[in-house]
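Review form for a predicted model. The reviewer records the input and the model, then writes brief findings.
Reviewer: anonymous (R2)
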Amino acid sequence: MPLIKKQESFEIVSGGNTFNLDVESRTTSYRIFSSAPVTPVGNHSFAVSGTPVEGMTFTFRYLADATLNSPVVISIFGSTMPSVLGNKNHTITAYYDGASWDVQFVPDLDQTGTLPYDVLPADESFTAVNAFGGASPAFANTNYSSSGTVAFGFRKKGDKRIEFRGTVTDAAGTNAQLFTLPAGYRPGRDKKYIIGGEISSSGAALQVILTINGTTSGTPGQVNIAGLTVASKIFFDGFVAFREDE
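Model under review:
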């Protein structure tokens, strides 16, 4: 006869709640749900009642449709659930290693066996690089400026990769420091890339060497241009570089 494990359910509600799981209970599988879409204004916390032992494991099937707006959170044994999963079906496992709980939030795969794009953290908004002499981040040379309808800038994508966009105009074939990436957007080591552009006077295509100094460099985050000989434009649209600290 198959072994049937009793499953208990916990509801995500507007006001929040605290749930205590008895370590002496034979129940180790739980369902977390909401009876309707909800935007909680209070936190939900799951904790254990009693003294856990090494190897103890709890499993939660999360089926709630909850919009989690900061600072409201759902926490499992001290680990905060990513807010993007508040309205996504997923499985939560909690394993006690004898000292602390290892909690994993595992999103469901789609029919192709991959993670749906909307379970990843959202991309940041772009930060524009300001004109030379302006507030940081700013162009490091007076010959560099943004051109076109979209300002030259950068952002961190949901997967922690750094993306650039926009067009940089160089007034005189200047090979120098472009600007400095702030902390949190720098590679772990120096990176070199070849990206495209055009000569301003003729529209002829050109290639530019882009060097981005890593966190271990003497000038961390410094972005440098090489390969220009005359006034040119450098195209950054769609340029996705390294992952943060990579």
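Findings: Residues 127-243 form a domain with the Immunoglobulin-like fold (CATH 2.60.40).
Further findings: The mean pLDDT is 92.
Recommendation: see findings above.
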